[in-house]
Amino acid sequence: MIMIAGVALDQLSKYWIMGHFTYGQSLPIIPNVFHLTYILNTGAAFSILSEHTWLLVLISLFALAGIFWYYHKTPKAQTLKRFALACIASGAVGNLIDRVYYGAVRDFFDFRVWPIFNIADCFVGVGVVLLIGCLVKEIYLEAKAEKEEKNIAGKE
After folding, report:
1. Among all residues, which ones are annotated catalytic?
2. Which residue of 10, 26, 79, 94 sits 20 to 30 Å from the alpha carbon of 148, by its own alpha carbon?
3. Distances (CA, A) of 78 to 52, 55, 68
4. Which domain holds residue 45?
């Protein structure tokens, strides 16, 4: 459900931008801080692999396959990890749709000190941060459990 909502929100926002802005048009919301600026990005994050759309499509498909596999492998009780994976997947699907249909990703959030991005990128970013947090917590808890086992074994 999260994934469907994320993709829908991303695509609706991009549809709105395309309907209200011409390519390259910028609207200051907070001048010199935050603008809405409609651009097309032919690369990945920070324009990496620009002009290699089909390579990025293949990478996205492989990444999505891995995310879906890991999602289904993750126990349902690990809701935060599953939420993080769903966020990452929704962002990947949103940008994949753009690459397939437009040959580039439609971006519009412009903070002037950061490359212009979109809602799909936000979902990926939030999902990655949450996933890293979950994995760090798991590693910490496993290390703590091992230490406790060693302490118990040493007392026997």
Report:
1. 107, 121
2. 79
3. 36, 33, 15
4. 2-21+34-128
Beta-bridged to residue 40, according to DSSP, are: 106
As for how many domains the chain has, the answer is: 1
Side-by-side strand order, sheet with 34-41: 26-30, 34-41, 105-110
- pLDDT for 120: 98
Q: Decide if 148 is inside a domain.
A: no
Please report where in the chains the tokens 């997947």 appear, as a residue: 89
Answer whether residue 96 is part of any domain.
Answer: yes
- Reading the block at residue 111, the tokens are 């903070």
Instruction: For residue 44, tell me if it sits in a domain.
Output: yes
pLDDT digits (tens, 9 = 90+) for 29-43: 999 999 999 999 998
Q: What is the pLDDT of residues 45-85, one digit of tens each?
A: 777 888 878 999 999 999 999 999 999 999 999 999 999 99
